């Protein structure tokens, strides 16, 4: 049995003819064929030579048509044995042992046994529902008064994304509606729900409210609004005739409980992101990120990565934002703490006051009935949840050495996808969590803000992020999402039902890459998608 080993097609056609023998697997050539089979082997050898020569010509044509300025360098660096071996371990030492069919929730292998105990303790706070205070279970009470979900896992199913709400009116969980402003500076950049002046709803619509039977509370506390979600369908087709359909979402708040929204307020839907690998993103040094910044597009490549400058709540210092759809939080710890307060209504040392606005008097009264002397989650428990998020491992990449995936990887670079979805980093060697330090990782994100065009714009300003700008999401592990959660949705608002749809929604700085994707034939498109699903 004679088999072929993969060879990078970087030599000329003539050189390919001379080197075909070298790509016959040494393992497969251990046994010399008998005389009666040599004729068939020679014929097979000729067929192999012709096939590889045609393949080389095909790939060469594709390179000329699609290559970005740095595509050749990227491709030569991206497909060799050493890099393939590294790519398999997407999270370096924090890669989980094997991909799961049930959950992303596993600690990375590099976490010590002691830290894994902390990981699973933190997971219990991530998983278990919070309850209304006062309660005998003091460590887990303090829900609300206004909230979106009773637990973290309600939004981040299996460490990923919980189901999208159906069309029509609903009280959504995993899809939250931020309330922002379409002019910079109106919320002083903070947008934490307490500094919105005459905005009765704060920075986020809370779709649920606790229920109290208490004589001191003279009126039932009301959740803030319902969401009416609808879609317009857009039909199109690729140049080769294959059809596609996009769905454009429309959002409207109904049954507003606290009056109308203020002037200049706009709605920004945010679909709960994947949380696995967040600790590794936290461990990338700010210097390595800043080295990628080119907000004025000085190099004239059409891509202008910009980092949000945001407030570190603990220190009061301005730092690079890297978490949140518009990179509003500088650290994983602050992101987790903000989600506790804004999504579940649990106050903490980062955000010690309730999200009740000044006009929500019954919300304030209900909060007082909770009888918490200070915050509702103590630092020791909050730290466990942060540790859980920090040590969440990344699934290993799969099948990257296969020809289709390697073709897809070349196309990924040729189309310019890697200009925003930066493939790899070496994490900060001085990062406090030793298991995350000095790790070669493959997240496929630059964590920077990019103008994604008018179709994806929400109009909301957050710090230095404009209404058209979104943070580049990491791509690692997304190919397992449907298998693990039973559904898949992409982009900041979950509108895309497939990776193809997500690419087709790319505009602004990513418009050229989107147009190049459209020009691929069906086989090439499938190869690109297979690569993205494998990383």
Plain-language structure description:
- With 535 residues, this protein is of the alpha+beta class.
- The chain folds into two domains: 1-88, no CATH class; 93-535, no CATH class.
- Helices cover 30% and strands 12% of the residues.
- It is built from 15 helices and 14 strands.
- A three-stranded antiparallel sheet has the order 2-6-7, with no helix packed on it.
- Helix 3 runs antiparallel to helix 11 (403-414), helix 5 crosses helix 10 (379-391) and helix 8 crosses helix 10 (379-391).
- The model is unreliable at 1-74 and 188-195 (pLDDT under 50).
Question: What is the overall number of helices?
Answer: 15
Average pLDDT works out at: 86
- In N-to-C order, the SSE pattern is HHHHHEEEEEEEEHHEEHHHHEEEEHHHH
For this structure, the quaternary state is single chain
Radius of gyration: 26 Å
Distance between the termini: 31 Å
Q: What percent strand?
A: 5-15%
User: How many extended strands?
Assistant: 14
Q: Can you list the strand order of the major beta sheet? A: 2-6-7
Overall number of structural domains: 2
**Which word captures the global form?**
globular
Structural class by SSE content:
alpha+beta
């Amino acid at each position: 049995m004679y088999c072929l080993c993969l060879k990078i097609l970087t030599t000329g056609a003539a050189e390919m003819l001379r080197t075909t023998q070298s790509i016959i697997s040494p393992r497969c050539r251990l046994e010399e064929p008998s005389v009666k089979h040599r004729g068939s082997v020679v014929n097979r050898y000729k067929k192999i030579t012709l096939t590889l020569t045609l393949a080389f010509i095909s790939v060469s044509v594709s390179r000329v048509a699609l290559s970005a300025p740095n595509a050749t360098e990227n491709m030569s660096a991206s497909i060799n044995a050493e890099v393939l071996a590294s790519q398999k371990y997407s999270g370096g030492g924090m890669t989980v042992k094997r991909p799961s069919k049930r959950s992303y929730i596993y600690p990375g292998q590099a976490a010590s046994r002691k830290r894994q105990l902390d990981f699973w303790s933190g997971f219990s706070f991530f998983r278990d529902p919070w309850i209304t205070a006062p309660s005998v279970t003091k460590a887990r009470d303090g829900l609300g008064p206004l909230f979106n979900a009773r637990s973290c896992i309600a939004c981040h199913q299996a460490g990923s994304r919980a189901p999208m709400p159906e069309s029509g009116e609903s009280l959504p969980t995993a899809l939250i509606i931020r309330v922002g402003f379409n002019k910079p500076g109106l919320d002083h950049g903070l947008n934490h729900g307490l500094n919105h002046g005459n905005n009765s709803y704060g920075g986020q619509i809370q779709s649920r409210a606790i229920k109290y039977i208490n004589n001191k509370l003279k009126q039932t506390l009301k959740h803030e609004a319902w969401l009416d979600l609808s879609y317009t369908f857009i039909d199109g087709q690729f140049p080769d005739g294959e059809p596609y359909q996009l769905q454009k979402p429309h959002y409207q708040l109904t049954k507003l409980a606290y009056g109308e929204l203020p002037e200049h307020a706009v709605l920004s839907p945010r679909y709960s992101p994947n949380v696995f690998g967040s600790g590794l993103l936290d461990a990338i040094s700010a210097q390595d990120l800043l080295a990628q910044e080119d907000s004025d597009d000085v190099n004239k490549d059409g891509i202008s990565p910009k980092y949000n400058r945001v407030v570190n709540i603990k220190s009061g210092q301005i730092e690079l934002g890297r978490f949140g759809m518009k990179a509003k939080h500088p650290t994983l710890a602050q992101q987790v703490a903000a989600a506790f307060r804004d999504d579940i209504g649990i106050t903490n040392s980062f955000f010690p006051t309730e999200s009740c606005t000044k006009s929500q008097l019954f919300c304030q009264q209900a909060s007082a009935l909770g009888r918490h002397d200070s915050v509702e989650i103590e630092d020791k428990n909050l730290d466990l949840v942060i540790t859980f998020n920090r040590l969440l491992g990344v699934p290993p990449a799969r099948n990257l050495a296969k020809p289709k995936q390697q073709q897809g990887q070349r196309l990924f670079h040729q189309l310019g996808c890697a200009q925003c979805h930066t493939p790899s980093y070496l994490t900060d060697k001085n990062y406090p969590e030793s298991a995350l330090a000095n790790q070669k990782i493959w997240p496929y994100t630059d964590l920077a803000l990019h103008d994604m065009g008018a179709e994806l714009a929400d109009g909301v300003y957050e710090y230095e992020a404009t209404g058209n700008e979104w943070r580049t999401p990491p791509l690692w592990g997304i190919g397992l999402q449907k298998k693990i959660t039973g559904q898949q949705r992409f982009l900041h608002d979950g509108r895309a039902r497939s990776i193809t749809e997500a690419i087709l929604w790319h505009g602004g700085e990513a418009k050229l890459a989107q147009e190049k994707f459209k020009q691929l034939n069906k086989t090439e498109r499938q190869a690109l998608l297979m690569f993205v699903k494998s990383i």
